[in-house]
Amino acid sequence: MGVRRGALIVLEGVDRAGKTTQCKRLVQALRDSGKEAEMMRFPDRTTMIGQLISSYLEKKSNLEDHTVHLLFSANRWEQVPLMKKKLEQGISLVVDRYAFSGVAFTSAKPVNPAEVAGRGGFGDERYETSVFQRAVQQKFEQLIKDPSVNWKVIDAARSIEDVHTEIKTLSENAINIAENQPIGEL
Ligand code: T5A
Ligand code: NA
Hints:
By secondary structure, the chain is mostly helical. The chain has a single domain (8-42, 79-177), classed as 3-Layer(aba) Sandwich (Rossmann fold). Helix content is 50%, strand content 8%. The protein is built from 8 helices and 3 strands. Helix 2 runs antiparallel to helix 3. It is globular, with a radius of gyration of 17 Å.
């Protein structure tokens, strides 16, 4: 029998939900309990494509909407061979955003563009307005109904520790289940 494969664990959500905080805590906890785990994040701003995305998000450049959508997508595809290799090697991947952010953020753009434009008070990056984030949240609520993906809804409005405990338990279950299933499409 070969090496047991790792699990693909993706944290999705609106901006500032606490995804990066939780991904880091989760990787540490899994490692502490003897499991092999690594963190990845999207957009991965370190690649050439990632630098174009980062400049767009920081409003240092403008890109046409379809173009930026495809850049986010390409930024994931460029990591897929590495991700597959790691999963096959038995390393679980804790991923800070993935394709569902791509769908939710792009599809939230046609929602009330006039109202979204120019509203501040959230953060400095392009999508950080509360009107836009509400639209993103609604898109996520639709997307989690997809029965082909095993989404779990986490209430992120609790303490970092409480959220972590729940995510850790769910992730340990996911790792046990993944061991007996083939790797599907990433
Ligand atoms: N995007 C992304 C697309 O449009 N298409 C795509 O395909 C993809 C992949 C950048 C933007 O790109 C968009 C989505 C985004 O708008 P990013 O780089 O992931 O994406 O964004 P970041 O700015 O790095 O991260 P977020 O804004 O999403 O924040 P997080 O990671 O959800 O939150 P985190 O952990 O950094 O925490 C934020 C703050 O809250 C505190 C933390 O200490 C921190 O100060 N915090 C808590 N405070 C109280 N209670 C808790 N439970 C807390 N958890 C965290
Ligand atoms: Na983040």
